[in-house]
Design brief:
Layout (H helix, E strand, L loop, with lengths): L2 H29 L22 E5 L4 E7 L2 E4 L5 E2 L2 H13 L4 E4 L17 H4 L1 E6 L5 E12 L12 E8 L5 E5 L24 E7 L6 E6 L8 E2 L10 H4 L13 E3 L4 H4 L6 E7 L3 E9 L20 E10 L13 H26 L5 E5 H4 L27 E2 L5 E2 L24
Antiparallel strand pairs: 1-2, 1-6, 2-3, 3-4, 5-9, 6-7, 7-8, 8-9, 10-11, 10-14, 11-12, 13-17, 14-15, 15-16, 16-17, 18-19
């Protein structure tokens, strides 16, 4: 083989190699998605979770801003009241791990088709937008949550939809929209939904005093001597007895209670009614004192009353503010004749309880100067008037008209009244007398 033939073969080989490369590149380009992220990939290459210092969630009807302060998330629209850290952190973590189910090539102008029209006034058309910023206010990420993705299955007989996912958009990625399996049911622009639900929880209540309406004088005071005892009414007369069915629930007043909302300080005056304010004071066997200020909210007057006499519809909610104080014992009272091994066990239990009570006191004292909105049903047991706490006297039994009056005579004999006109007369029947015939 001469030199010319070798050169020709090399040229042919290079040409074939170039052709194969072009074919492969064409195939890859044909199969490659036009979107930046593909099925199975995370929505973000790297979500800036640790840098996020604020999150703003906006809907068609409002918005809420969550701000991180000293590792704790707060709600700006509620005067910086603590947010539920778990809710916020779960949102950030989920976005960082979120994977694409389906990628759809479409530009930002297609946002309304996916329920992400930021100019829409309807919730179903607007969707939700979450904007994440760092401590300096620089935008880190922005995502929109659109329509739910419904399955093709028939509606469930138990009710509810058949949503299997949701459409989402990463505003930094203009190559398309994505379908995901996550629904984000807890994400909302309603500020009260993000609030930390920690509230007062009086334990082992010893006494309760309710003031008169608009006064500091007591309407009534209930006390009990032990945790197992029933309440007694202070100043009760000899004929007054408490109805334990009414006072029994007061032993566990506010146990596991929840508030409806936190009222910003600037809006308290416009929400509070001018009359009806009362104070309730609770003390516990462990030294806690709760002073509650209870104020009805303003009535919501109807736009067009049916008649001049029609009264405005009252709300069921109250405004509540609380002050908590405590005198916690520093040492346990020793029992007479206590064994050393028993004393050690009791001292350890006392120390653990004291630590728990101290933590409880600090948490509840932090609720001072905050106005909560609570349902009236939560306060119904303590808002009863004095008469409503008393047992109603038993109605006298109706007299039996057939019994008549009975009189007891000496010796235990009973004298009954003569029969009335309605009593059948007693008849004596004498058999006929036969007279013998004379002889």
């Amino acid at each position: 083989m001469n030199k010319r033939q070798v050169i020709i073969l090399w040229v042919i080989a290079l040409a074939l190699g170039a052709a194969v490369t072009i074919v492969k590149l064409s195939q890859n380009k044909a199969t490659q998605s036009a979107t930046k992220r593909t099925q199975g990939q995370t929505l973000f290459e790297s979500f800036p979770a640790t840098e996020a210092a604020s999150v703003t969630v906006q809907s068609a009807t409002g918005s809420v801003t969550l701000v991180k302060k000293d590792a704790t998330w707060t709600v700006s629209e509620r005067d910086g009241y603590p947010a539920n850290n778990a809710y916020v952190n779960d949102l950030i973590r989920t976005l960082g791990e979120l994977k694409v189910t389906v990628a759809m090539e479409a530009g930002p102008s297609f946002a309304p088709r996916f329920g992400m029209d930021e100019s829409a006034t309807k919730e179903e058309d607007r969707g939700l937008t979450a904007t994440f910023k760092d401590a300096s206010g620089k935008e880190l990420a922005k995502v929109s949550l659109g329509k739910n993705i419904e399955s093709g299955a028939a509606p469930s007989p138990m009710g509810g939809g058949n949503a299997v996912g949701r459409y989402i958009r990463n505003h930094a990625d203009e190559s398309g929209f994505y379908a995901i399996s996550e629904m984000f049911p807890a994400v909302t622009a309603d500020a009260k939904a993000w609030l930390n639900s920690t509230f007062i929880n009086p334990e082992k209540i010893q006494s309760i005093t309710l003031s008169q309406v608009g006064k500091t004088d007591a309407a009534w005071t209930l006390t009990r001597e032990t945790e197992e005892a029933e309440f007694k009414l202070q100043g009760a007369t000899g004929t007054e007895t408490l109805d334990t069915a009414v006072t029994g629930p007061l032993k566990t007043l506010f146990s596991y209670a929840r508030f409806e909302d936190v009222v910003p300080a600037a809006k308290v005056a416009e929400r509070a009614a001018a009359e009806g304010k009362r104070t309730a004071t609770l003390t516990t066997f462990e030294g806690f004192t709760y002073t509650l200020t209870l104020t009805p909210t303003k009535s919501a007057a109807p736009a067009a009353p049916a008649s001049p006499e029609a009264a405005p519809a009252a709300t069921d909610n109250f405004l509540l503010s609380v002050a908590v104080a405590a005198e916690l014992p520093k040492e346990r009272k020793k029992e007479e004749g206590e064994k050393p091994e028993d004393a050690k066990t009791k001292d350890s239990a006392f120390a653990d309880r004291l630590k728990s009570l101290t933590e409880k006191l600090n948490k509840e004292k932090a609720l001072a100067n905050i106005t909560f909105e609570v349902a009236k049903s939560l306060l119904d047991p303590v808002l009863k008037e004095r008469d409503a706490l008393l047992a109603k006297p038993a109605a006298p039994a109706a007299p039996d008209p057939s019994a008549g009056n009975v009189q007891q005579l000496p010796g235990g004999m009973i004298a009954r009244p003569p029969a009335t006109a309605t009593t059948a007369p007693i008849e004596a029947v004498t058999p006929p007398i036969s007279v013998p015939a004379s002889e």
